[in-house]
Amino acid sequence: MIQLFAKKGEAAEMPTREFKKVVLSRKSDYIVEQIYEALLRGDLKSGQRLSSESELAETFGVSKLTVREAVRSLEQMGVVEVRKGGSGGLFIRKADLASTVRQLENIMRIPHITVTDLTETRVALESYILQALLPNKKIPDKMLTRLKDNISAAEQYYNEGKNLERLQTNFEFHLLLSSLTDNNMIIILHSLTCDMLIRFFRLARPSPEMFMKTMDYHREIVAAIRDRKFDKAARVNAEHIRVASNKMTEKSKQQSYLHIGE
Question: Are residues 117 and 77 part of one domain?
Answer without folding.
Answer: no
